Amino acid sequence: MTGDHYFSAEPGTAARPREVEFTVAGRDYALTSAGGVFSADRLDPGTAVLLRKADLPAPDAAGNLLDLGCGFGPIACVLAGSAPAATVWAVDVNERARALTAANAARVGAADRVRVAAPDDVPDDVTFDQLWSNPPIRIGKDGLHELLLRWLPRLAPDGVAWLVVARHLGGDSLHRWLAERGWQVRRHASQKGYRVLRVTR
User: Fold this and answer.
1) Are 171 and 143 in contact, with CB atoms under 8 Å apart?
2) Average pLDDT, the chain
3) What pLDDT does residue 199 have?
4) Is residue 110 within 8 Å of 71, Cβ to Cβ?
5) Nearest-angstrom CA–CA distance, 33 and 39
6) What one-character-per-residue DSSP string does 71-137 give?
7) Tens digits of per-residue pLDDT, 102-135?
8) 194 close to 46: Cβ distance less than 8 angstroms
9) pTM higher than 0.85 for the full model?
């Protein structure tokens, strides 16, 4: 055991690149992943439910979209493919994840529209029309709450956040916690033990 996690800033796990293939909204994706990032060997089941059940941005959507905790970039690449006029911010603490996302954005022809950044490198004045996240539950409840309290307030006034959380990992309690803090939360879908939450102001 190395103590290495997908939320480590600089994972020490051997990279061992591999291909991950999946289909969303009729479009096939083949992305490069590697050890030391979230769900390195496949499209995470929760991410798959999120991309299948949430409302992908319309083709004419513009503005800024945020993939929070981007991993190797599947959500960022799908958002870029769905909304070619938008700018997609892909944010992760993991240096290897950011490098993979940048490479995968180039691979799908969206390098000019996907801005990959560490959390502290996103300018303070940037707001987001949409926030998408399969949040890192494994950082613990306090860390998760801190993460959401940092990024949800950066939604534009009419912005929407799409979150997916496994029911057995606290999807319903997170729903209640967000509502208690004044957010409008609706369970948009449930599938395979996951909750897809739609969050607005």
Assistant:
1) no
2) 95
3) 98
4) no
5) 9
6) TTSHHHHHHHHH-TTSEEEEE-S-HHHHHHHHHHHHHTT-TTTEEEE-GGGS-TT--EEEEEE---G
7) 999 999 999 999 999 999 999 999 999 999 999 9
8) yes
9) yes
Mean pLDDT confidence for 71-77:
98
pLDDT score, position 138 = 86
pLDDT in tens, 151-164: 999 999 999 999 99
User: Torsions phi, psi of 12, nearest 5?
Assistant: -95, -10
3-state secondary structure of 143: helix
Distance CA 149, CA 140 (A): 14
Amino acid at site 88: V
Rounded Cα–Cα distance for residues 200 and 78 (Å): 22
